[in-house]
Specification:
Layout: H1 2-14, H2 29-32, E1 38-41, H3 53-74, E2 80-83, H4 88-98, E3 107-109, H5 112-126, E4 133-134, E5 137-139, E6 147-149, E7 154-155, E8 158-159, H6 160-164, H7 166-178, H8 180-188, H9 194-209, E9 211-221, E10 234-242, E11 245-248, H10 256-275
Parallel strand pairs: 1-2, 2-3
Antiparallel strand pairs: 4-7, 5-6, 7-8, 9-10, 10-11
Helix pairs in contact: 3-4, 5-7
């Protein structure tokens, strides 16, 4: 892995990024996490054939417990940490729990890829530029239970649902966003790469520089006071971001149908948390 990493470092240097000053390749956590202000935890063990989700979570805990502890011990006290490796929401919970001295709000699970997928589906369907699509929401877990929601979405200021139709929304849009990762694997034989990397960068750019012109989906810490989502989960909400602080969009009226979908994905997160409950004792 170290040899492969050296090749990645070569490519980074060859990109001649104007802000790149130094590259450190290491498998030493104390070196890799020292004074870091923005951490992207990308690596995770993929699910193998016949593996139950609970087993997958147990295996990934071996990765994210040490990384959480390393963040706690070595990172800058204001570090912002994005978990990309799947199952991202519960891996995020594991890492944040073991970074016991850092704020839970400074960790996030990546649902920006799901958000971007949803935006593109609407833009493509309506023949509109991507920036014209606003107020898309992805609720819940980064898994097939997620709920991509167009209730408040607009295209050039017009209600998106009026343009795409209810039938397309429920029968095509929602399942396609939920299963987009599998669709890409079927097409190219590999999981999402460029789009996932782009989403991770976009997430961190929004987090560090602000995102107030539109809503964005963000796998953030639930304190139990927002939209009936249980406390102690990393759950995707619509947020705006200012001064590196994310805020959930308040005051949205939730219909019974929306509530059912939101609860379904929350229940999956509760099941995942229960499966690794013993690992959350610090």
């Amino acid at each position: 892995a170290q040899q492969a990493l050296s090749g990645v470092a070569m490519e980074l240097g060859d990109c001649a990024f104007p802000l790149l000053r130094e590259i450190v390749c290491t498998d030493n956590l104390s070196v890799g996490f020292k004074d870091v202000q923005a951490a992207l935890l990308v690596g995770a063990k993929p699910r193998s054939k016949g593996m139950e989700r609970g087993d997958l979570l147990q295996e990934n805990a071996k990765i994210f417990i040490p990384q959480g502890r390393a963040l706690n011990d070595y990172a800058h006290r204001d570090v912002r940490t994005l978990i990309v490796g799947n199952p991202a929401n519960t891996n995020c919970l594991i890492a944040a729990t073991h970074a016991k001295d850092l704020p839970k709000e400074n960790f996030a699970a990546m649902t920006r890829l799901d958000h971007d997928r949803a935006v593109w589906q609407v833009a493509e369907k309506t023949g509109s530029p991507v920036p014209s699509v606003q107020k898309v929401v992805v609720w819940g877990n980064h898994s097939p239970t997620m709920f991509p929601d167009l209730t408040w979405a607009t295209v050039n200021g017009r209600p998106a649902l009026d343009l795409v139709g209810q039938d397309w929304y429920t029968k095509t849009f929602i399942p396609r966003v939920q299963k987009r990762g599998a669709e890409i694997i079927e097409a190219r034989g590999l999981s999402s790469a460029a789009s996932a990397g782009n989403a991770a960068l976009a997430h961190m750019r929004s987090w560090l520089l602000g995102h107030t012109h539109d809503w964005v989906s963000f796998g953030g810490w639930s304190n139990g006071n927002q939209y009936g989502v249980p406390e102690g989960l990393y759950y995707s909400f619509p947020v705006t971001i200012q001064n590196k602080q994310w805020s959930i969009v308040n005051g949205l009226n939730i219909t019974p149908e929306q509530r059912q979908r939101m609860t379904h994905t929350a229940n999956e997160l509760l099941e995942e948390r229960k499966a690794i409950e013993s690992l959350l004792k610090v």
